[in-house]
Write a structure and sequence with these properties.
single chain, four-stranded antiparallel beta sheet, globular
């Protein structure tokens, strides 16, 4: 988890220092650009237009509660989980902590992978978001496999 958190935080530091805001550079032509943006909200900038004095404490508080609940649940139940479900938490928790750190320190999350298809823009995210997405996929697989396996 520490390595995954470090990957996220170091990539965001590099982007904040090295990539000018809103400047796009092709990584994979017509699919992924490197574009520095600051997301003040959550997914797809939802809640990003709320006044900073309300938005930052609200999102930091919700993120902190979510991280605490995820950590507590995983700590209590990881021995009973299958490999996929454990892997899910190993990815989701550092991803959530990485974005929590950004919200706490900067009031926004640093995003930089701009996913698009030619001129159709989908979203901009970061390594923490990718970790969370991979974790959710692993959790779904783990849940599916545990429901299909015979009871012990």
């Amino acid at each position: 988890m520490g390595l995954l958190l470090a990957m996220d935080q170091l990539s965001k530091v590099w982007v904040r220092v090295s990539v000018p805001m809103h400047q796009g550079t092709n990584l994979i032509p017509n699919l992924i650009d490197l574009t520095h943006v600051e997301n003040k909200g959550v997914s797809f900038s939802f809640l990003g237009n709320i006044d900073d004095g309300v938005r930052v404490p609200l999102l930091v508080g919700i993120s902190l509660i979510a991280v605490a609940m995820l950590g507590y649940y995983w700590f209590r139940h990881h021995r009973q989980m299958n490999l996929w479900s454990n892997t899910a938490f190993v990815f989701i928790i550092p991803g959530a902590v990485g974005n929590l750190i950004d919200r706490s320190l900067y009031g926004a999350v640093t995003d930089f992978f701009h996913f698009r298809f030619y001129d159709i823009s989908f979203f901009v995210n970061n390594i923490a978001d990718i970790q969370i997405s991979l974790g959710v996929m692993a959790f779904v697989v783990g849940t599916f496999l545990s429901e299909r396996s015979p009871t012990r």
